[in-house]
Amino acid sequence: MDASTGLIELYRGENPTIDIVAVHGLNGHPTKTWTTEKSKKFWLKDNDLLPSNLKSARILTFGYNAAVATLLGRTSSDRILQHAQTLVAELVADRERPIVFICHSLGGIVVKRALAYSASRTSKLVQHLYSIFVSTYGILFLGTPHNGSSKAGLASMGSRMISALTPSKMIVEENSAAPILDNTERAGLPYGQRDMVKFESRTSPGYRMVVAALMRHSREAPSTVFVRWVRAEEMLRSKRQNEAAELMQ
Question: Which of 136, 138, 160, 165 is most deeply packed, by most CB within 10 A?
Answer without folding.
Answer: 136
